[in-house]
């Protein structure tokens, strides 16, 4: 028997991840089960060990014991590495979610409507590094102020670029942020998502009006909460409990509908 455990935003908190997986392992041993670990995304940034977290999940995905959905911090990291260190251009064919900064700027949405391309790229660089990208670069021995030093292993970049937008079992649908019912239908069909749908599943914080994945539960992270926030009417659960800010790292078992968590020793200040 396999039990699936969905873990909230890890944000480079490798030590907490290891302790949580040990706790999950003990629970599964007691039940005669094998754990399967799913991340809601945001493996990276803010905490001190993003490189170790990526390597851990790379090994787990290769072994068939782990899965990862794409988070907004992976998107920011990929975009900045691709633009400021062109060696990291996405492998062909690029995933459906990937849009380089030039493509995004041409669309003239939000900030790009009022900035030059140079201003737009600088803004994206500052947003990523100020929101934890600096800690990720430091974990790789790179200088956040000097893009020429932004060297990470090619296989780490390729791993991030190829993460899926969702994961699903018999009990739950997992995306990084809030999705709506139409988004879940599109994800299941393999149809490329619209720009607005992509923004929702990677960045969305607005609660859906109807259950996105009924009769299954929709599990997401992205927005840190003091405790797991569930809404049984909408069949949603938010499981980011702020590991990077001195909170807890939490896992939700989809089959058992129970949570396990560990306290984090990381306290990140913007």
Detailed description of the structure:
The structure is a single chain. With 270 residues, the chain is an alpha/beta fold. The strands form two sheets. It has a five-stranded mixed β-sheet with strand order 3-2-1-9-10. The chain has a five-stranded mixed β-sheet with strand order 4-5-6-8-7, with no helix packed on it. Helix content is 37%, strand content 16%. The longest helix is centred in the middle third of the chain and has 23 residues. It has a single domain, classed as 4-Layer Sandwich (Purple Acid Phosphatase, chain A, domain 2). Helix 3 crosses helix 5. The radius of gyration is 18 Å and the shape is globular.
- Separation of the first and last Cα atoms: 42 Å
Structural category is: alpha/beta
Kindly report the spatial arrangement of strands forming the biggest sheet: 3-2-1-9-10
pLDDT averaged over residues? 95
* Unreliable segments of 5+ consecutive residues: none
Name the CATH superfamily classification.
Metallo-dependent phosphatases
Helix amount = 25-40%
Cα-based radius of gyration, to the nearest Å = 18 Å
Number of strands: 10
Q: Briefly note the CATH topology name.
A: Purple Acid Phosphatase, chain A, domain 2
Strand percentage lies at: 15-25%
H/E series, N to C?
EHEHEHHHHEEHHEEEEE
Molecular shape: globular
Number of domains: 1
Number of helices: 8
| Biggest sheet details | 5 strands, mixed
